[in-house]
Amino acid sequence: MKKRNKKANERSPGLKIGDVRKTIEGYDEEQLRLLIAELYKLVPRRVRDEQQVDALVQNPRSRIERPRPARKAVPDIADLCAEADIFIEDAYAQNYLAPNSYVPKHKRPKWRFIARRIYKGLMQAGEDHEELCLAAGSLEDLYRLLCYACSYVLFSAYDVFQSVGVSQEEFFRQVVRLKSKIEPPREFARNAIQLAAEQPLNRYTLHETLMEVVLEFFSTTDMKEMAIDLCNDLRNEKPPKQKEDSWSDPSREAYETTKRRNNLATMGFLCLIRLTEFDRAVEYFQRHYSERNPEIALYVCLRLLQQHASPEIWIRTYEGALQNGVTPRQELREIYAALRKGGHFADDSG
Q1: Greatest CA span in the chain, whole angstroms?
Q2: Cα end-to-end distance, the chain, whole Å
Q3: How far, CA to CA in Å, does 173 sit from each of 31, 121, 143?
Q4: Are 106 and 163 in contact (CB under 8 A)?
Q5: How does residue 293 score in pLDDT terms, banded at 50, 70 and 90?
Q6: Which string of DSSP letters, residue by residue, matches 171-199?
Q7: Is the pLDDT of residue 136 over 60?
Q8: How many angstroms separate the CA atoms of 209 and 2, rounded?
């Protein structure tokens, strides 16, 4: 049996439409008639009907446009916000978790699809300037609900953001993006900082990660300086409760207050780092970060410097702590020894 010629079986790439037009320019009328008739015979009847080839032959001047896919209708913002409000109210009441007469049993496991659909609808509505304000408000309410569900059981899920299909970092970024379009700069900066520093987190997110998202929108020096002032103002304010009917526990409230103050200290530190004022950033952190054990405060500060500053700044901060009587843990001593020998920070991004 003879082997088939591979080249003979390869398909020709064919002529491009520009080549076709150039080729037929020199054809006379008889040649064009013959060409059209032969091509028409080659078109299957089904294709003729679908593409309306007969209509094109009968009236060549009326170019037949292929039907474009219908544009997805933007959901009515009033209906969407009303649905979001009902969903959020039912979720806070644990109606998607416990037996109740408001959410049928078969619909309770579907909460994640409802939340996902509302999220997508609000994102789509947020592209319309007239609907932006309502969309941003409802999206923030939905985000706060999912954050609350990271600390209190509202749904049967290990991680609510993962269940909805949007990471907490990305969900937060979209909330901040919409709010940045409708709020005055100082109001926006204050709200964004509070949202990053005060809301509960899932297991895969750090407050620092959300602060870095906020800094994506603080593009100017003035915005960063304003953010530092706002951190100072917020530090002296009483933190808001997650919900009016939340169970009150003095020890938990004290813990949350300290955590909030430390988050604000970290936010101010990151703003100063972005301004390349490293010494001022370290001094700011040391003054405002609340920790009884000075070694732990040093560890947190050096960890942040390892991510955002040079080895020289890290070494200077480490040695300053030694002079103040702080005894660093073994891990920090090893990093210090390596840096003093001219080493660099290990890349732990993987």
Answers
A1: 101
A2: 56
A3: 63, 16, 11
A4: no
A5: very high
A6: HHHHHHHHHHTTS-HHHHHHHHHHHHHHS
A7: yes
A8: 66
